[in-house]
Specification:
The chain is built from 7 helices and 15 strands. By secondary structure, it is an alpha+beta fold.
Length: 269
């Protein structure tokens, strides 16, 4: 894909994500009174999640007619062939429900399953994270670069936990073993923003099991274009983290963190 084509896809992703972010911000007081659950009682969806995704779908149908959309709330295409839009209408819904500002709208364009353009927009702060494959990563138009960290014990590690109770406990046990090996651990509750944090050097690495494509499609590209070592669920790898792992890290500390995670049992959670 030509650079100009990727940049146009970024422009469209920003346009539709910004409109959805405005809806999410303005609808919160009403939306959080209409809450359902999905995989468990702690896995929630609000009226704003559904309205945001419908808005994105409607705008994309007008701007890019005929191109399929895969979204968290309404599903969509099962094929990754060609150009597919991947949408998380509110990443960090629990944060949104409780009034925490750490949530975002994530829109990515993937070509044959590989992200080529993406935008992650935070409704509360208004921050706009973007990337085009081969064109770099940006926060509000400013170039991003991962941290220069080289020491495991001085690394800040981001993670997340499953909604499945048993798996959540196993993840917590693995992370408890990591606590003595890194500077500290963060659990922010929005995978797209954790990946963006790696891109900005606000976290040195991020790892989580069980993410869906819409969780990492845009944020993962942003981290990669900022120089992070990345791997996503389903990647063919023998790195010991497990088939369902999403991992992004600054190159200077990536291998140390990966090895420590494996030794802590993370790949078995």
């Amino acid at each position: 894909m030509l650079a100009a084509e990727s940049e146009e896809l970024v422009r469209i992703a920003v346009t539709v994500a910004a409109e959805a972010a405005e809806l999410v911000r303005n609808a919160r007081d009403h939306a959080v009174t209409q809450v359902d659950t999905k995989s468990s009682e702690t896995d929630v969806v609000t009226a704003a999640d559904r309205a945001s995704e419908q808005l994105v779908r409607d705008r994309l149908a007008r701007l890019r007619p005929g191109e399929p959309v895969l979204g968290e709330e309404e599903g969509g295409t099962s094929s990754l062939d060609g150009l597919v839009w991947v949408v998380d209408p509110i990443d960090g819904t629990v944060n949104y429900l409780y009034g925490h500002p750490w949530h975002a709208v994530s829109v990515a364009a993937q070509l044959d399953g590989v992200s080529v353009a993406g935008a992650v927009i935070e409704p509360v702060s208004g921050r706009v994270w973007t990337a085009a494959r081969g064109g770099g990563a940006f926060l509000d138009g400013r170039p991003l670069r991962v941290a220069a960290t080289t020491r495991l014990e001085l690394s800040l590690l981001g993670t997340g936990f499953s909604y499945d109770h048993a798996r959540r406990l196993r993840q917590a046990e693995a992370m408890s073993r990591m606590l003595g090996r890194v500077r500290d651990i963060r659990r922010c509750g929005a995978a797209s923003l954790d990946l963006c944090a790696v891109a900005a050097g606000w976290e040195d690495a991020y790892v989580e099991h069980g993410l869906h494509r819409w969780d990492w499609a845009a944020g993962g590209l942003i981290a990669e274009e900022a120089g992070a070592v990345v791997r996503f669920p389903g990647d063919v790898t023998d790195d010991g983290l497990g088939a369902e792992a999403t991992f992004a890290a600054a190159p200077g500390v990536a291998e140390q963190i990966r090895a420590a995670l494996v030794e802590s049992g993370f790949g078995k959670v």
